[in-house]
């Protein structure tokens, strides 16, 4: 969980990067942060990563007050996060496998774990056959997927994607966003900073709009209403299953089985159509 409580950040030259922000992001949310250049989006991310500390207020991540966190504790905080950069930031001399493994080595992960985990995350992003290649041999979309695999390497509870589609074409942009959506379905909180409003429109999620250091719009209420509606619809699909089971007898079992089977098939079709 991420919480900003009356947070302001003013830099020495007098620039008010963010001003009196109050915000709460629950575990497992998918959140877009949008706004023009200079709106304060990057400063918000830096406060969450503890690259900056607020001039006023509190920033709380996973129950920990970052304003009171010692510098020696910051690396442990960042191990719970995966960062996807716009410019990829891959190491050219390393192979794809080595780039992803490097993120694990710096946290002291055992080599035996690295050997198992890296192929898994590369397969997750569709690059299981690219492990021996170097970044220069990959397309922009493939390099961004390596960046995402690296972010996932340490099983973070939070993924921060800073303009993740800025250097790829529209088709690859959708691929990257679909991957982030799949990661979110696994329970990981995802924050995406983007200026691409077409992506925000297409991919359902909470939207936080910033302007001149302030939050001017937050669709949290709309987002939660939609999520609750989907949960209720999912529950409705299964309604009656228990009833059938409770009424089941040895003589009527085959009839009930046919009814359950028919409902399951309808449910599977509904889910396939949604996807």
- Biggest pleated sheet: 6 strands, mixed
* Mean pLDDT over the residues: 85
Gross morphology is globular
**CA-to-CA gap between the ends?**
28 Å
User: Which percent range fits the helix content?
Assistant: 40-55%
The main sheet orders its strands as 6-7-8-3-9-10
Order of helices and strands: EEEHEEHEHHHEHEHEEHHH
- Poorly predicted parts: 244-257
Task: Provide the β-strand percentage band.
Answer: 15-25%
Rg, alpha carbons: 22 Å
What would you call the structural class?
A: alpha/beta
Give the helix tally: 10
Number of strands: 10
Quick description:
The chain is of the alpha/beta class. Helices cover about 45% and strands about 20% of the residues.
Please give the structural blueprint.
Layout: E1 2-10, E2 16-25, E3 30-34, H1 41-49, E4 56-61, E5 64-65, H2 74-78, E6 81-84, H3 96-105, H4 111-124, H5 140-152, E7 158-162, H6 170-185, E8 189-193, H7 197-202, E9 206-211, E10 214-218, H8 220-238, H9 241-247, H10 253-274
Parallel strand pairs: 3-8, 3-9, 6-7, 7-8
Antiparallel strand pairs: 1-2, 1-4, 4-5, 9-10
Helix pairs in contact: 3-4, 3-5, 4-5, 5-6
């Amino acid at each position: 969980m991420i919480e900003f409580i009356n947070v302001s950040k003013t830099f020495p030259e007098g620039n008010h990067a963010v001003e009196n922000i109050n915000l709460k992001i629950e575990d497992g949310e998918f959140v877009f942060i949008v706004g023009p250049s200079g709106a304060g989006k990057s400063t918000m991310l830096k406060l969450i990563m503890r690259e900056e500390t607020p001039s006023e207020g509190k920033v709380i991540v996973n129950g920990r007050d970052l304003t009171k966190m010692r510098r020696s504790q910051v690396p442990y905080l960042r191990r719970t996060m995966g960062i996807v950069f716009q410019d990829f930031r891959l190491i050219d001399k390393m192979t794809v496998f080595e780039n992803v493994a490097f993120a694990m080595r710096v946290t002291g992960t055992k080599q035996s774990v690295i050997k198992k985990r890296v192929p898994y995350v590369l397969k997750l992003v569709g690059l299981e056959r690219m492990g021996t290649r170097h970044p220069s041999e990959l397309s922009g979309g493939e390099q961004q997927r390596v960046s995402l695999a690296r972010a996932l390497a340490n099983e973070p509870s939070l993924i921060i994607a800073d303009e993740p589609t800025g250097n790829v074409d529209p088709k690859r942009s959708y691929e990257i966003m679909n991957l982030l959506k799949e990661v979110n379905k696994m329970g990981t909180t995802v924050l995406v900073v983007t200026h691409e409003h077409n992506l925000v429109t297409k991919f359902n999620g909470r939207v936080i709009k910033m302007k001149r250091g302030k939050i001017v719009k937050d669709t949290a209420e709309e987002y939660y209403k939609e999520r609750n509606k989907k949960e209720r619809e999912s529950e409705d699909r299964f309604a009656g299953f228990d009833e059938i089971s409770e009424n089941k007898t040895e003589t009527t079992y085959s009839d009930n089985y046919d009814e359950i089977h028919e409902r399951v098939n309808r449910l599977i079709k509904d889910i396939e159509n949604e996807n």
